[in-house]
Design goal:
Blueprint: H1 4-9, H2 13-25, H3 39-56, H4 67-80, E1 85-88, H5 97-105, E2 124-129, E3 132-137
Parallel strand pairs: 1-3
Antiparallel strand pairs: 2-3
């Protein structure tokens, strides 16, 4: 839940979190792409999900209890990273989706400003993270 620093200032953070939960998004993580608030917590929440996803990827028929297979697994580990990861940033107008995208990409890819509707087109950015292709949709 981006722009949480401004929600907290106005005392509506709890109400916004309740609304997100009611819509089926689970428990939201309060973040701020602009200030970095909550990014460490977001990472800690997403890391086990990412590791679980990697664990489910096929391992080319190698057995985990075979020492020779272990060495081959290390060599083939890069193969798993060839499966692209697709991420989407969704939200209401003017909640900081473009700012979050720019922050994650560490570049000014899309225009940001205080007026709603500044970014109207769908954006698809591709980047590499730990030798893995990631597609980020906004």
């Amino acid at each position: 839940m981006n722009k949480s620093e401004s929600l907290d200032e106005h005392g509506v953070l709890t109400a916004a979190a309740g609304e997100a939960h009611k819509l089926g998004f689970g428990d939201p993580v309060a973040i701020s792409a602009e200030t970095g608030l909550g990014m460490a917590e977001l990472y800690e929440i997403l890391r086990p999900l990412f590791e679980e996803y990697l664990f489910k990827l096929p391992n080319n028929g190698l057995k985990n209890d075979d020492p020779a297979s272990e060495a081959e697994t290390e060599v083939n580990k890069g193969d798993e990273s060839k499966v692209p990861l697709q991420l989407a940033i969704v939200g209401r107008p003017n909640v900081g989706k473009s700012t979050l995208l720019n922050t994650l990409l560490q570049e000014q890819r899309v225009l940001v400003g205080p007026e709603a509707g500044l970014t109207r087109d769908s954006i698809r950015a591709q980047f590499q993270f730990d030798n893995r292709t990631v597609y980020l949709h906004r």
